[in-house]
Amino acid sequence: MDPISEWVAGWKIPIGRWGKDFFDFLTTNFAWFFRSISNGLTSLLDGMAELILMAPPVVVVLVLAALAYWLQRSWKLSAAMVLGFLFIINQDLWEQTVDTLVLVVAAASASMAIGVPIGIWAAHKKTVWNWLNPLLDLMQTLPTFVYLIPVLILFGLGVAPGLIVTVIFASPAPIRLTYLGITAVPKPLLEAGESFGATKRQLLWKVELPAALPTIMAGLTQCIMLSLSMVVIAGLIGAGGLGTEVVRALNSGPRGIPLGIEAGLAIVILAISLDRMSRVRVGTAP
What's the predicted TM-score (pTM) here? Predict the structure, then answer.
């Protein structure tokens, strides 16, 4: 190492120690708060999974197929979902699939509940977007394991930190796509609404949101796919579900290949089903 580099390295900024001190402060003084959140989320998600598991698997599959038909008016999609979920039941992965489904639906719902209002706010306030854009870049480029460490320190192992990490990872997508959809609304539409005396709230609900709906729904689809991509990482921190089966397969070496294939196919079936169900049907968008 050259002298200049040695001099620069000799004045190392102790940012790592500062971070440790900060999290030590949080865990020492607010451990009860983070544990309460963790316990509450765990109880909620476990309760939802147990409620679904109380029903016969075939009944749940038929309900999901009926929901898919109601949303998309496609009997082919419903039939494919029935066959796919029957395959999952056949592979004895139904309980893990339900755990994953609950986690993904909860994470996507939370991400949309956070992302859509923030995206609307940023679309109407340029200053907010200027500050938010670099933060979203950071959230999307920062390796997941970097913010997995502090989440684990604060919330411990289990499904709760898996949900929190998934929401952090997935929420930039609906924020960006909601912002894009609102800012892309044609000006003549807004001017027509204003000419009829519409208030800002009426413009939002009756003009901007309907026009931006396809883009917002694309954000939902991305949310679901990003959430499913976190399934394995969630399994690493004890979240259960299909991710745990993949982790078990990885830890088993060559003996885990059959389990890895089975769990991987189950994730693919779940991903395709949720993706097709959440798409806007042709002709429904304004």
Answer: 0.87
Q: Going by C-beta distance under 8 Å and a sequence separation of 6 or more, which residues neighbour residue 214? A: 181, 280, 285
CA atoms within 13 A on the CB side of 269: 26
CA angle 66-71-73, nearest 5°?
A: 80
Sign of the four-CA dihedral 89, 91, 93, 97: negative
Tokens representing 97 are 């699939």
Residue-wise pLDDT tens digits, 165-220: 889 889 999 999 999 999 998 888 888 888 888 888 888 888 888 889 989 988 88
* Closest to 243 (Cα-Cα) out of 150, 144, 112: 144
| Of 74, 99, 77, the residue nearest 88 (C-alpha) | 99
Residue 31, number of CB atoms within 10 A of its CB: 13
The helix, strand and coil proportions of the chain, stated in percent and rounded to the nearest 5, come to 85, 0, 15
pLDDT at residue 155 greater than cutoff 70: yes
Q: How many CB atoms lie within 10 A of CB 276?
A: 17
The closest alpha carbon to 176, from 234, 146, 135, belongs to 135
Nearest CA-CA partner of 229 in 177, 178, 271, 280: 271
